Amino acid sequence: MFRLSNLLKSVTEGKPSRILDGSIAIWNFTNRCNLSCLHCYSRADLDSTDVLSTENIMEALPKLKANGVKFLIFSGGEPLTRKDIYDIAARCKELGIVTYLSTNGLYTKTSNAEKILDTFDYVGISIDGSEEVHDKFRGLKGSFKESMKAVDLLNSYGKTKVGIRFTMTKDTYDDLAFIFDLAEQHEIPKIYISHLVYSGRGLDNLEMDLSKAQRIKAVNFILDKAFEYHETGRDIEIVTGNMEMDAILFYDKFIQKYPEHAEEMKKRLIAWGGNSAGRKLLNIDSEGFVKPDPFFPEKIGNILTQDFTDIWTDKPVTLLQKLRVHPRELGGKCASCQYLNICNGGSRSRAYAIYGDMWAEDPSCYLTEAETRGVN
Q1: N or C: lower Cβ tally within 10 Å for the chain?
Q2: Interatomic CA distance for residues 326 and 341, integer angstroms
Q3: How many helices, marked H, and strands, marked E, lie in the chain?
Q4: Closest C-alpha among 93, 47, 46, 55 to residue 74
Q5: What is the per-residue pLDDT across 96-113, written as a single tens digit (0 to 9) for each?
Protein backbone atom coordinates (compact mmCIF):
# COMPACT_ATOMS: atom_id res chain seq x y z
CA MET A 1 0.00 0.00 0.00
CA PHE A 2 1.18 3.49 -0.86
CA ARG A 3 -0.04 5.93 1.79
CA LEU A 4 0.56 9.08 -0.23
CA SER A 5 -1.55 11.44 1.86
CA ASN A 6 0.34 10.50 5.01
CA LEU A 7 3.69 10.94 3.28
CA LEU A 8 2.69 14.28 1.83
CA LYS A 9 1.53 15.62 5.19
CA SER A 10 4.37 14.24 7.29
CA VAL A 11 7.20 15.40 5.03
CA THR A 12 5.90 18.92 4.44
CA GLU A 13 5.19 19.35 8.17
CA GLY A 14 8.50 17.82 9.27
CA LYS A 15 6.84 15.00 11.19
CA PRO A 16 7.64 11.29 11.32
CA SER A 17 5.73 9.22 8.77
CA ARG A 18 3.76 6.09 9.56
CA ILE A 19 6.29 3.28 9.58
CA LEU A 20 5.23 -0.36 9.31
CA ASP A 21 7.02 -1.84 12.30
CA GLY A 22 6.18 -5.43 11.51
CA SER A 23 4.20 -7.29 8.88
CA ILE A 24 0.66 -7.16 7.48
CA ALA A 25 -1.28 -10.38 7.02
CA ILE A 26 -4.32 -10.49 4.77
CA TRP A 27 -6.39 -13.47 5.87
CA ASN A 28 -9.23 -14.78 3.71
CA PHE A 29 -11.15 -16.38 6.57
CA THR A 30 -13.85 -17.67 4.24
CA ASN A 31 -14.51 -18.14 0.54
CA ARG A 32 -18.23 -17.63 1.10
CA CYS A 33 -19.69 -14.40 -0.29
CA ASN A 34 -23.06 -12.94 -1.21
CA LEU A 35 -21.66 -11.16 -4.29
CA SER A 36 -20.05 -12.31 -7.57
CA CYS A 37 -17.55 -9.54 -8.28
CA LEU A 38 -15.91 -9.57 -11.71
CA HIS A 39 -12.39 -9.02 -10.33
CA CYS A 40 -12.55 -11.44 -7.36
CA TYR A 41 -9.17 -13.14 -6.91
CA SER A 42 -10.65 -15.92 -4.72
CA ARG A 43 -13.65 -16.72 -6.95
CA ALA A 44 -15.88 -16.57 -3.88
CA ASP A 45 -19.55 -17.58 -3.84
CA LEU A 46 -22.31 -18.15 -1.30
CA ASP A 47 -22.18 -21.95 -1.58
CA SER A 48 -18.59 -22.25 -0.34
CA THR A 49 -17.98 -24.19 2.87
CA ASP A 50 -15.49 -22.97 5.46
CA VAL A 51 -12.38 -25.14 5.69
CA LEU A 52 -10.71 -23.48 8.66
CA SER A 53 -12.26 -24.10 12.07
CA THR A 54 -12.29 -21.54 14.86
CA GLU A 55 -9.72 -23.69 16.66
CA ASN A 56 -7.42 -23.73 13.61
CA ILE A 57 -7.48 -19.94 13.47
CA MET A 58 -7.09 -19.36 17.20
CA GLU A 59 -4.05 -21.65 17.30
CA ALA A 60 -2.39 -19.72 14.49
CA LEU A 61 -2.94 -16.17 15.80
CA PRO A 62 -0.25 -16.21 18.55
CA LYS A 63 2.22 -17.59 16.03
CA LEU A 64 1.51 -14.72 13.65
CA LYS A 65 2.11 -12.27 16.50
CA ALA A 66 5.35 -14.04 17.51
CA ASN A 67 6.63 -13.71 13.93
CA GLY A 68 6.11 -9.99 13.62
CA VAL A 69 2.57 -9.68 12.28
CA LYS A 70 1.24 -6.39 13.66
CA PHE A 71 -1.75 -5.85 11.35
CA LEU A 72 -4.37 -8.36 10.25
CA ILE A 73 -6.79 -7.57 7.43
CA PHE A 74 -9.98 -9.64 7.71
CA SER A 75 -10.94 -10.55 4.15
CA GLY A 76 -12.79 -13.22 2.21
CA GLY A 77 -15.15 -13.89 0.55
CA GLU A 78 -17.21 -11.80 2.91
CA PRO A 79 -15.69 -12.17 6.39
CA LEU A 80 -18.94 -11.24 8.16
CA THR A 81 -20.48 -14.52 6.97
CA ARG A 82 -18.42 -16.27 9.66
CA LYS A 83 -20.22 -16.41 13.02
CA ASP A 84 -16.91 -16.51 14.90
CA ILE A 85 -15.42 -13.43 13.23
CA TYR A 86 -15.89 -11.20 16.30
CA ASP A 87 -14.25 -13.78 18.56
CA ILE A 88 -11.29 -13.97 16.18
CA ALA A 89 -10.93 -10.19 16.15
CA ALA A 90 -11.23 -10.04 19.96
CA ARG A 91 -8.36 -12.52 20.25
CA CYS A 92 -6.29 -10.33 17.93
CA LYS A 93 -6.93 -7.37 20.21
CA GLU A 94 -5.75 -9.41 23.21
CA LEU A 95 -2.54 -10.18 21.31
CA GLY A 96 -2.01 -6.55 20.31
CA ILE A 97 -2.70 -7.15 16.61
CA VAL A 98 -4.42 -4.24 14.82
CA THR A 99 -7.49 -5.42 12.90
CA TYR A 100 -8.85 -4.11 9.59
CA LEU A 101 -12.17 -5.37 8.23
CA SER A 102 -12.58 -5.53 4.44
CA THR A 103 -16.29 -5.96 3.70
CA ASN A 104 -18.97 -5.28 1.11
CA GLY A 105 -21.16 -3.84 3.87
CA LEU A 106 -24.27 -5.84 3.01
CA TYR A 107 -24.31 -7.59 6.40
CA THR A 108 -23.88 -4.32 8.29
CA LYS A 109 -27.10 -3.27 10.03
CA THR A 110 -28.14 -1.09 12.96
CA SER A 111 -28.21 -4.25 15.08
CA ASN A 112 -24.49 -4.98 14.65
CA ALA A 113 -22.98 -1.59 13.70
CA GLU A 114 -21.60 -0.73 17.14
CA LYS A 115 -20.24 -4.24 17.57
CA ILE A 116 -18.33 -3.92 14.29
CA LEU A 117 -16.94 -0.53 15.30
CA ASP A 118 -15.96 -1.71 18.79
CA THR A 119 -14.31 -4.83 17.38
CA PHE A 120 -12.26 -3.53 14.43
CA ASP A 121 -9.69 -0.73 14.29
CA TYR A 122 -10.60 0.17 10.71
CA VAL A 123 -13.39 -0.79 8.30
CA GLY A 124 -13.09 -0.59 4.51
CA ILE A 125 -16.26 -0.99 2.42
CA SER A 126 -16.09 -1.68 -1.31
CA ILE A 127 -17.70 0.91 -3.59
CA ASP A 128 -16.86 0.57 -7.28
CA GLY A 129 -18.52 3.56 -8.87
CA SER A 130 -22.00 4.95 -9.36
CA GLU A 131 -25.03 2.83 -8.57
CA GLU A 132 -25.38 1.28 -12.05
CA VAL A 133 -21.66 0.59 -12.44
CA HIS A 134 -21.21 -0.76 -8.92
CA ASP A 135 -24.22 -3.09 -9.11
CA LYS A 136 -23.07 -4.54 -12.43
CA PHE A 137 -19.47 -4.91 -11.26
CA ARG A 138 -20.51 -6.55 -7.98
CA GLY A 139 -23.13 -8.78 -9.58
CA LEU A 140 -26.11 -7.73 -7.46
CA LYS A 141 -28.75 -5.08 -8.16
CA GLY A 142 -29.26 -2.82 -5.14
CA SER A 143 -25.83 -3.55 -3.64
CA PHE A 144 -24.63 0.05 -4.08
CA LYS A 145 -27.45 1.44 -1.94
CA GLU A 146 -26.90 -1.17 0.76
CA SER A 147 -23.13 -0.66 0.83
CA MET A 148 -23.51 3.12 1.06
CA LYS A 149 -26.06 2.71 3.85
CA ALA A 150 -23.38 0.77 5.72
CA VAL A 151 -20.74 3.45 5.12
CA ASP A 152 -23.02 6.24 6.35
CA LEU A 153 -24.32 4.20 9.28
CA LEU A 154 -20.89 3.28 10.60
CA ASN A 155 -19.45 6.76 10.14
CA SER A 156 -22.45 8.28 11.94
CA TYR A 157 -21.14 6.90 15.25
CA GLY A 158 -17.88 8.86 14.99
CA LYS A 159 -15.86 5.95 16.39
CA THR A 160 -13.70 3.79 14.12
CA LYS A 161 -12.53 5.28 10.82
CA VAL A 162 -14.62 3.84 7.97
CA GLY A 163 -13.39 4.27 4.40
CA ILE A 164 -14.25 3.09 0.90
CA ARG A 165 -12.33 0.74 -1.38
CA PHE A 166 -12.39 1.17 -5.16
CA THR A 167 -10.88 -1.14 -7.80
CA MET A 168 -9.85 0.50 -11.08
CA THR A 169 -10.78 -1.38 -14.24
CA LYS A 170 -12.12 -0.36 -17.65
CA ASP A 171 -15.60 -0.94 -16.20
CA THR A 172 -15.07 1.50 -13.33
CA TYR A 173 -12.52 3.91 -14.84
CA ASP A 174 -15.04 6.61 -15.82
CA ASP A 175 -16.37 6.68 -12.25
CA LEU A 176 -13.08 7.56 -10.56
CA ALA A 177 -14.11 11.21 -10.14
CA PHE A 178 -17.48 10.04 -8.80
CA ILE A 179 -15.72 8.18 -5.98
CA PHE A 180 -13.97 11.35 -4.82
CA ASP A 181 -17.20 13.35 -5.09
CA LEU A 182 -18.90 10.67 -3.01
CA ALA A 183 -16.21 10.86 -0.32
CA GLU A 184 -16.50 14.63 -0.19
CA GLN A 185 -20.31 14.67 -0.04
CA HIS A 186 -20.56 11.92 2.59
CA GLU A 187 -17.49 13.06 4.56
CA ILE A 188 -15.80 9.69 4.16
CA PRO A 189 -12.35 9.94 5.75
CA LYS A 190 -10.41 7.50 3.56
CA ILE A 191 -10.29 6.30 -0.05
CA TYR A 192 -8.31 3.18 -0.95
CA ILE A 193 -7.83 2.76 -4.70
CA SER A 194 -6.67 -0.63 -5.89
CA HIS A 195 -5.17 -1.37 -9.30
CA LEU A 196 -6.22 -4.69 -10.84
CA VAL A 197 -3.97 -7.70 -10.28
CA TYR A 198 -4.32 -10.64 -12.66
CA SER A 199 -5.59 -13.40 -10.40
CA GLY A 200 -8.85 -15.26 -9.81
CA ARG A 201 -11.67 -13.72 -11.84
CA GLY A 202 -9.29 -10.78 -12.43
CA LEU A 203 -7.17 -13.15 -14.54
CA ASP A 204 -10.23 -14.53 -16.31
CA ASN A 205 -11.17 -10.95 -17.17
CA LEU A 206 -7.72 -9.67 -18.10
CA GLU A 207 -9.18 -7.55 -20.87
CA MET A 208 -10.86 -5.31 -18.30
CA ASP A 209 -7.54 -3.88 -17.10
CA LEU A 210 -6.68 -0.28 -17.95
CA SER A 211 -4.42 0.65 -20.82
CA LYS A 212 -1.21 2.36 -19.75
CA ALA A 213 -2.52 5.70 -21.05
CA GLN A 214 -5.67 5.31 -18.97
CA ARG A 215 -3.63 4.33 -15.93
CA ILE A 216 -1.37 7.38 -16.16
CA LYS A 217 -4.41 9.66 -16.52
CA ALA A 218 -6.12 8.01 -13.56
CA VAL A 219 -3.05 8.14 -11.32
CA ASN A 220 -2.46 11.79 -12.16
CA PHE A 221 -6.07 12.53 -11.20
CA ILE A 222 -5.63 10.70 -7.88
CA LEU A 223 -2.39 12.53 -7.11
CA ASP A 224 -3.89 15.89 -7.98
CA LYS A 225 -6.73 15.20 -5.54
CA ALA A 226 -4.22 14.31 -2.83
CA PHE A 227 -2.36 17.59 -3.30
CA GLU A 228 -5.67 19.49 -3.43
CA TYR A 229 -6.85 17.94 -0.15
CA HIS A 230 -3.49 18.67 1.47
CA GLU A 231 -3.41 22.29 0.33
CA THR A 232 -7.03 22.99 1.33
CA GLY A 233 -6.85 21.12 4.63
CA ARG A 234 -9.50 18.57 3.60
CA ASP A 235 -9.23 15.55 5.88
CA ILE A 236 -9.59 12.72 3.36
CA GLU A 237 -6.77 10.18 3.29
CA ILE A 238 -5.83 8.63 -0.06
CA VAL A 239 -4.06 5.28 -0.38
CA THR A 240 -3.31 3.34 -3.56
CA GLY A 241 -2.57 -0.37 -3.77
CA ASN A 242 -1.01 -2.92 -6.12
CA MET A 243 0.84 -0.33 -8.22
CA GLU A 244 3.97 0.80 -6.43
CA MET A 245 5.02 2.84 -9.46
CA ASP A 246 2.46 5.41 -8.28
CA ALA A 247 5.14 6.51 -5.82
CA ILE A 248 7.41 7.58 -8.67
CA LEU A 249 4.76 9.68 -10.37
CA PHE A 250 3.94 11.12 -6.95
CA TYR A 251 7.60 11.99 -6.33
CA ASP A 252 7.85 13.84 -9.66
CA LYS A 253 4.83 15.98 -8.74
CA PHE A 254 6.02 16.48 -5.19
CA ILE A 255 9.44 17.88 -6.09
CA GLN A 256 7.82 20.37 -8.45
CA LYS A 257 5.61 21.69 -5.66
CA TYR A 258 7.97 21.27 -2.71
CA PRO A 259 11.57 21.20 -4.04
CA GLU A 260 12.90 22.09 -0.59
CA HIS A 261 11.62 18.72 0.71
CA ALA A 262 12.76 16.61 -2.26
CA GLU A 263 15.68 14.92 -0.49
CA GLU A 264 13.62 13.98 2.57
CA MET A 265 10.78 12.61 0.45
CA LYS A 266 13.15 10.45 -1.56
CA LYS A 267 14.65 9.04 1.67
CA ARG A 268 11.20 8.12 2.92
CA LEU A 269 10.16 6.53 -0.36
CA ILE A 270 13.29 4.38 -0.34
CA ALA A 271 12.64 3.45 3.30
CA TRP A 272 9.06 2.51 2.35
CA GLY A 273 10.55 0.19 -0.24
CA GLY A 274 7.69 -0.50 -2.62
CA ASN A 275 6.19 -3.95 -3.15
CA SER A 276 6.49 -5.90 0.10
CA ALA A 277 5.00 -9.29 -0.84
CA GLY A 278 6.94 -11.94 1.06
CA ARG A 279 8.80 -9.32 3.11
CA LYS A 280 6.27 -7.34 5.13
CA LEU A 281 3.14 -8.74 3.55
CA LEU A 282 1.64 -12.22 3.53
CA ASN A 283 -1.66 -13.88 2.81
CA ILE A 284 -3.43 -16.85 4.35
CA ASP A 285 -6.25 -18.14 2.19
CA SER A 286 -9.49 -19.82 3.21
CA GLU A 287 -7.86 -23.28 3.11
CA GLY A 288 -4.88 -22.29 5.26
CA PHE A 289 -2.37 -21.88 2.44
CA VAL A 290 0.22 -19.16 2.99
CA LYS A 291 1.25 -16.97 0.05
CA PRO A 292 3.42 -13.85 -0.31
CA ASP A 293 0.29 -11.87 -1.22
CA PRO A 294 -3.35 -12.75 -2.02
CA PHE A 295 -2.75 -12.84 -5.79
CA PHE A 296 0.42 -14.93 -5.80
CA PRO A 297 0.55 -17.91 -8.18
CA GLU A 298 2.60 -20.05 -5.76
CA LYS A 299 1.97 -21.21 -2.19
CA ILE A 300 4.74 -21.34 0.42
CA GLY A 301 3.08 -23.53 3.07
CA ASN A 302 -0.11 -24.36 4.95
CA ILE A 303 -0.89 -23.59 8.59
CA LEU A 304 -2.94 -26.79 8.90
CA THR A 305 0.07 -29.01 8.26
CA GLN A 306 3.06 -26.79 9.13
CA ASP A 307 4.12 -24.46 11.88
CA PHE A 308 3.77 -20.82 10.79
CA THR A 309 7.14 -20.02 12.36
CA ASP A 310 8.79 -22.52 10.03
CA ILE A 311 6.93 -21.20 6.99
CA TRP A 312 7.62 -17.49 7.56
CA THR A 313 10.77 -17.26 9.69
CA ASP A 314 12.83 -20.36 10.42
CA LYS A 315 12.62 -22.31 7.15
CA PRO A 316 11.61 -19.87 4.39
CA VAL A 317 11.48 -21.46 0.95
CA THR A 318 13.75 -20.18 -1.82
CA LEU A 319 10.93 -18.08 -3.27
CA LEU A 320 10.59 -16.12 -0.02
CA GLN A 321 14.33 -15.64 0.22
CA LYS A 322 14.41 -14.15 -3.28
CA LEU A 323 11.43 -11.92 -2.59
CA ARG A 324 13.19 -10.55 0.49
CA VAL A 325 16.18 -9.30 -1.47
CA HIS A 326 15.75 -5.52 -1.73
CA PRO A 327 15.72 -4.20 -4.31
CA ARG A 328 14.78 -7.39 -6.11
CA GLU A 329 16.86 -8.86 -8.92
CA LEU A 330 14.53 -8.51 -11.89
CA GLY A 331 14.61 -8.57 -15.67
CA GLY A 332 13.23 -6.34 -18.40
CA LYS A 333 13.32 -2.59 -17.87
CA CYS A 334 13.44 -3.17 -14.09
CA ALA A 335 17.04 -4.37 -14.44
CA SER A 336 18.33 -0.86 -15.20
CA CYS A 337 15.58 1.22 -13.57
CA GLN A 338 16.79 4.08 -11.39
CA TYR A 339 13.64 3.77 -9.25
CA LEU A 340 13.86 0.05 -8.43
CA ASN A 341 14.78 0.79 -4.80
CA ILE A 342 11.51 2.74 -4.50
CA CYS A 343 8.93 0.51 -6.24
CA ASN A 344 10.80 -2.81 -5.87
CA GLY A 345 9.53 -3.95 -9.27
CA GLY A 346 5.81 -3.96 -8.57
CA SER A 347 3.67 -7.09 -8.80
CA ARG A 348 5.30 -10.49 -9.30
CA SER A 349 1.83 -11.97 -9.87
CA ARG A 350 1.22 -9.79 -12.93
CA ALA A 351 4.69 -10.60 -14.26
CA TYR A 352 4.01 -14.32 -13.95
CA ALA A 353 0.51 -14.05 -15.46
CA ILE A 354 1.75 -12.30 -18.62
CA TYR A 355 5.31 -13.54 -19.11
CA GLY A 356 5.31 -16.83 -17.19
CA ASP A 357 8.33 -15.44 -15.34
CA MET A 358 8.11 -14.41 -11.70
CA TRP A 359 11.13 -12.14 -12.06
CA ALA A 360 10.18 -10.26 -15.22
CA GLU A 361 9.12 -6.61 -15.19
CA ASP A 362 5.59 -5.77 -14.07
CA PRO A 363 3.64 -5.55 -17.37
CA SER A 364 1.41 -2.83 -15.92
CA CYS A 365 4.30 -0.46 -15.20
CA TYR A 366 3.51 2.77 -17.04
CA LEU A 367 7.05 4.21 -16.94
CA THR A 368 8.86 4.25 -20.29
CA GLU A 369 12.35 2.79 -20.55
CA ALA A 370 13.68 6.31 -21.03
CA GLU A 371 12.02 7.40 -17.78
CA THR A 372 13.41 4.44 -15.87
CA ARG A 373 16.91 5.43 -16.98
CA GLY A 374 16.46 9.12 -16.25
CA VAL A 375 16.60 10.14 -19.91
CA ASN A 376 14.45 13.13 -20.93
Answers
A1: C
A2: 7
A3: 16, 10
A4: 93
A5: 999 999 999 999 999 999
